[in-house]
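Entry for the shared binder. Reason: the reviewer on the internal report wants the predicted structure included alongside the sequence.
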Amino acid sequence: MATSRRSVVNETGAAEVPVTPNRSITIPPVRFQLARFQLVGLPDVPLVVHRFSAKVKQEMKTKMETGKAASGRKNRSPKNSMQTYNEARYRSREGWDGFNAAAIRKAMISACRLTTIKMVLAKLSVFVEKDGVDRDEPQIPLIRIIGDPVLQEDMARVATGEPYVAIRPAYFNWRAFVTIKWDSDQFLLEDVTNLLMRVGQQVGICEGRPDSKNSAGMGWGLFEIERPETLSNAAD
């Protein structure tokens, strides 16, 4: 459809601005949709969580501020297993255990590699609603874990190849309710459901997942999903 064009002279008369009063809008407003999914951990497959140690973070900050280089040879300070275990947990202000909500979003973006969907499209279209925030670092959004943690000890290796015992919380027979928000112009409910299903069966979340960047994983962090509950459309 042809549109008329007219020119408007500004107050100085130095420039003209073209105007197209009959031009139609080609970019629609964003329309988000919400659905709530129940994640159910696979039998005998743990969800293993490992937050970055607050003590190590403080040591790194101190070295950065003082400008003192780390010593190549130094004795390791003794560690209390229970303290290390508790430091590896995410706990909300209300006291429940959780995992970083970003884990689900990152896993869904990664799962796009198994489909014809471009990862950048999911990156701009799929988001995860948090259940709460971490009590010590409120910038970390959390998904609540329904299940009790146990102290798990595993042999691991640092970047130099030196072995050490990794102490982390593991959740067996766990569940979680996750609310996904997505751009309905890009994905249907079935698309989001199938993408999350691939996360649960092929990608995994948290420590030892099949999609681990540093190894082939331990087969941890896998889950099944229950039928989603569609919620009212999200506000823009």
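Summary line for the report: Residues 32-65+79-231 form one domain.
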